[in-house]
Hints:
Distance between the termini: 51 Å
Amino acid sequence: MTDYSRLLNPEQCEAATSGDGPLLVLAAAGTGKTRTLVYRVAYLVERGAAPDSLLLLTFTNRAAREMLERAKQVAGESVGNLWSGTFHHICNRFLRRFADKLGYPNDFAILDRDDSRALIDQCIKDTVRNKKDFPKKDVIGSLISSAANRACDVEDVLDQALSDLKVDPMEIVKIANLYTERKRAMGAMDFDDLLVNGLRLLTEQEPIRAFYQNKFRHVLVDEYQDTNLLQAKMVDVLAGVNKNVMAVGDDFQCIYSWRGADFRNIMEFPRRWPECRIVKLEQNYRSVPEVLEVANACIKGNPEQFQKTLRPTRKTRNKPRVFFLRDGEEQAAALLRLVQRYREDGYNLSDMAVLYRAHFHSIELQIALGRSRLPYVITSGISVFEQVHVKDVLAFLRVCEYPNDRMAFGRLLGMLGGVGEKTVDSLWEKLGGTFDTRDTGQRERLTAALKPAARGQWQEIDRLFGDYHREHLSESGGEVIQRFCDVFYHTYLARAFENGDKREEDIRELALQVSRSEGGVAGFLQEVALLTNVDHEYDKMAREHADMLHLSTVHQAKGLEWPVVFVIWASEGMFPSSRSLGEAENDAEERRLFYVAVTRAKDELVLCSPGMRRTRDGGVFFCKPSRFIKELPRGLTRESYGAAMSY
């Protein structure tokens, strides 16, 4: 028999070799939770459990594959019979056998994202008479998905979502019901239906529930803090007979409430399973002691949590740095110099990551990196200037400036209701292959040629073209972007995107950068064109050469680690987000998010706190340092004021 005490530390060994019954493993950052789960599987198999009587639930297929491969290395190939995968994957297996019990064929189709969007779009067309101001398919799809994952009716998620739109909620309810009917008629399920119907199968069909409850002698769940209500209930049902449930997670890293994760699932686990044992993994193998001291200090401010203290295994190094900087521009310049310093110390660019609370925090830095031609990769998505909503606003500016820009003309008109590519082609031809916004007559001909549904929206934009040239707004690009949002794009964002409010933050930051650009709107557009071409060069480099600086939101960085981590905009209203201020529950999640950011650092941690943000009209407003920095005990960090780069 394997001597697990030699392979694992005492905490990991206690969790991996625990006896029967419910077990909550609180695995703090960098403490080896995957290793613990793998050896738990090996231990159970070694003690006689049939591999196909074990169920391992994960949140990514990659995690499931990794654990399965590692378990095979420890316990042999027989572990390959283990049931493992994401919640959706396991539900699909249930439904392939028993979907007919719910009125679906067992060979039901699974709608991918594009299929689902197309079907919702058709439901909108068949239900809504006045589509001009009605939310688009992605918004409706998001509302339907949110209701499904929260196990509630669509009506329950509408109030806040529709605050910016004049929409009859019952129209959305009708669309949701029609969408459900048509999926059933097609014998199809979307991604959310796999969870919903998988749970229905277990709760409504007693023989099936009993079959799986008896089949799975042990249920193991990774990243339990990220479960939503459906997933937590599914775990409780499946483990309801044998009561051998092992939930592995970290309440300190519960940061996904915005996509349905429910913090209460992990906090209430001991209440739902009164006989559960709790094992805490606190021995950290990732970060140096100085980084862990900052992490421990910042998370202590959350009152409702399982108390844990990260203990280091690595040798001492430098204290984390805190830079109190003038503004975002000085922050970007300081970061470039620091990156160069760390390269001189022997770190590669790929060893370093810049983390931020929201995408718009990185716009100044992306511009500075582009100018310096320092290669970087955005691991949490695409460049700001490649994002759809930013390209929409840039298209408006390009139409203002460039009469021959057919692509921008088509993109701008395409935002109007009822205007497709054929209509754009026809209008462009009628205008003679050019559209000069200085030409009043040409603007009038275009307005007259539009259909009534589109004309009303266009007239507001057309008036803005007149203001642009009459008031010389090309020299005040931030002002014209704000006006474009006021008269048209704010409403368009709410209709077109599920997260329109966050996208508007990007646009406000874009307006600020345009206002500060030399050469006005034309100069800024030229610089963006150069930057996006550099991005394409980086794409090629990413395939051929991996040494690039990483940029990422903190949410997308969870589960990753780098030797050197920079956290930018650690200022009140930025990190923590202004959205969270004043609400204790939101403040607690922001603190957990900051903890996740800090614990990504292995060797070096740098926190940057600019003291002011500039506004598009040339003014400023002052920012206090983030509460997460101010609350740190003196002596845990080295503080610098201004851009002084001395070590």
